[in-house]
């Protein structure tokens, strides 16, 4: 297919990042002004962040100082106060909270044990699914039935699974090189739907963790129950090594599991989105950057999504440090309740619709702070074609991939409002080694990679502000 190139007119004359320079004459029949030098401005952004960037230090404060920041906990409250303080430190005056609903879910104590025949019970490391029903703190026992595919599930009669504990051992497909695609393909399977499994008469659901790591660390996942579910069964995950070993055991003999989970839901409360902005000098049109502020309850949430939080703050810090006079309002939204409900993103989208605010672009970052590779452009083909010619400016920074077309994290509800979306694309090969696990810690983040991501984001925001 032929590529279509549209030449974007560049700005003439002086630039707000730079002091005015004398006009240079071109040796031609006529005298013209030098074209606006985006390469120079990109380098100014990069030099500022790579020399003076605070994102890595801020991430250390967030992960080690605040720690886990799960919805409806004191940890999230501390994270809110920390974020507000950071915005104030970089000179942001417009900061406010936007309350959103959040479920109150308490993990409590949890355990999984298995045994064959008259053998002793053996402990298996596990994690309850987020928002899962528990067992009321009582032991739930049952025979384990292995299911490896939807074909197997559909072939089983209700009697085969009634009162059993269904074990789903489906790995992420290693042949899919884009690990995000591999994760989503597995995560959307009805095999790991507690509602689907409950309809078979099963007592509980155990799944193999969705991870690319070859270890025994369980990874959490959010569970959804359908409103008409008569029974909500407990759901939990185990590490890949335990999963592979359990499959071998189940294929040889009858294996019984004993699950004890005190997890429980206690209604709803509110948690705030944190919003900060630099108002536009030309108009009130809005460009937003978004990341999730909450994390799971058991880990530091460094790659998911502490890196995104500090990169968004770094964009505003850099613009202020360079004395940039932005045309449009540049706003950061740190979303509440992303991990176990998504109420924060829905609240923000509802706010934009109600206020009828003109948003011209939304950029999300939720991929772990690894080396930036490009931007996924979730927008009309016409809009994408406006961005394609900018590739040449990004290439020196290792940013080349502008072909992906889905922005799937917290900015996604804005798509319904016809707002062009983009998501920072990074090298994702290590992300799912740590995603949603106790291994998601500060030491997994590389400072240089984190700062390079902030560089690319700032450069993109700069280009949108200057050209849209």
Question: Helix and strand layout, with pairings?
Answer:
Layout: H1 38-52, H2 55-66, H3 74-89, E1 94-106, E2 110-116, E3 122-124, E4 126-128, E5 140-147, H4 150-155, H5 158-161, E6 165-168, H6 179-187, H7 194-198, E7 204-208, E8 235-238, H8 240-252, E9 255-261, E10 264-278, E11 286-292, H9 302-321, E12 329-335, H10 343-355, E13 359-364, E14 372-378, H11 381-387, H12 391-394, E15 421-426, H13 431-434, H14 447-467
Parallel strand pairs: 5-6, 6-7, 7-8, 11-12, 11-13, 13-15
Antiparallel strand pairs: 1-10, 2-3, 2-9, 4-8, 5-9, 10-12, 14-15
> What's the overall geometry?
elongated
Strand order in the sheet with the most strands? 3-2-9-5-6-7-8-4
Structural class designation: alpha/beta
Major beta-sheet overview: 8 strands, mixed
Indicate the radius of gyration in whole angstroms: 25 Å
Low-confidence stretches: 1-34
Tell me the fraction of residues in β-strands, as a range. 15-25%
The N- to C-terminal Cα distance equals 27 Å
User: What's the total count of β strands?
Assistant: 15
The H-and-E topology, N to C, reads as HHHEEEEEHHEHHEEHEEEHEHEEHHEHH
Helix proportion range: 25-40%
Describe the protein.
This protein is α/β, with parallel strands linked by helices and 468 residues long. It has 14 helices and 15 strands. The protein has helices spanning 38-52, 55-66, 74-89, 150-155, 158-161, 179-187, 194-198, 240-252, 302-321, 343-355, 381-387, 391-394, 431-434, 447-467, and strands at 94-106, 110-116, 122-124, 126-128, 140-147, 165-168, 204-208, 235-238, 255-261, 264-278, 286-292, 329-335, 359-364, 372-378, 421-426. It has an eight-stranded mixed beta sheet. Helix 1 packs antiparallel against helix 14, helix 2 (55-66) packs across helix 9 (302-321) and helix 9 packs across helix 14. The two termini are 27 Å apart.
């Amino acid at each position: 297919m032929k590529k279509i190139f549209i030449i974007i007119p560049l700005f003439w004359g002086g630039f707000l990042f730079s002091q005015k320079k004398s006009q240079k004459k071109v040796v031609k029949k006529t005298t013209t002004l030098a074209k606006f030098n985006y390469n120079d401005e990109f380098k100014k952004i990069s030099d500022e962040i790579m020399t003076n960037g605070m994102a890595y230090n801020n991430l250390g404060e967030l992960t080690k100082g605040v720690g886990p920041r799960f919805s409806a906990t004191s940890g999230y409250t501390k994270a809110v106060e920390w974020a507000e303080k950071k915005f104030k430190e970089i000179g942001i005056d417009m900061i406010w909270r936007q309350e959103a609903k959040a479920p109150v879910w308490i993990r409590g104590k949890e355990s999984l044990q298995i045994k064959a025949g008259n053998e002793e019970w053996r402990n298996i490391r596990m994690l309850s699914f987020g928002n899962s029903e528990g067992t009321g703190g009582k032991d739930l026992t049952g025979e384990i039935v292995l299911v490896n595919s939807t074909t197997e599930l559909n072939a089983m009669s209700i009697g085969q699974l009634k009162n059993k504990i269904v074990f789903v051992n489906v790995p992420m497909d290693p042949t899919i090189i884009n690990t995000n695609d591999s994760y989503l393909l597995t995560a959307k399977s009805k095999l790991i739907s507690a509602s689907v499994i409950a309809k078979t008469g099963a007592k509980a659901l155990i799944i193999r963790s969705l991870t690319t790591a070859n270890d025994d660390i369980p990874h959490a996942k959010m569970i959804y129950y359908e409103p008409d579910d008569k029974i909500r069964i407990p759901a939990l995950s185990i590490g890949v090594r335990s999963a592979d070993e359990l499959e071998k055991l189940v294929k040889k003999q009858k294996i019984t599991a004993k699950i004890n989970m005190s997890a429980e839901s206690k209604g709803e409360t509110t948690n705030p989105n944190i919003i900060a902005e630099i108002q536009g000098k030309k108009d009130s049109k809005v460009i937003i950057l978004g990341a999730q502020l909450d994390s799971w309850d058991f880990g530091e949430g460094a790659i998911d999504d502490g890196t995104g939080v500090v990169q968004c703050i770094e964009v505003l810090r850099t613009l202020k440090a360079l004395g940039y006079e932005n045309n449009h309002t540049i706003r950061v939204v740190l979303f509440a309740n992303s991990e176990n409900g998504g109420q924060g993103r829905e609240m923000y989208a509802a706010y934009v619709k109600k206020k009828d605010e003109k948003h011209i672009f939304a950029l999300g970052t939720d991929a772990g702070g690894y080396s930036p590779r490009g931007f996924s452009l979730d927008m009309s083909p016409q809009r994408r074609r406006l961005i394609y010619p900018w590739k040449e400016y990004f290439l020196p920074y290792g940013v080349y991939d502008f072909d992906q077309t889905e922005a799937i994290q917290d900015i996604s509800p804005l798509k319904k409002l016809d707002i062009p979306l983009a998501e920072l694309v990074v090298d994702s090969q290590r992300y799912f080694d740590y995603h949603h696990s106790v291994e998601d810690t500060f030491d997994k983040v590389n400072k240089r990679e984190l700062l390079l991501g902030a560089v690319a984001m700032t450069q993109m925001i700069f280009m949108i502000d200057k050209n849209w």
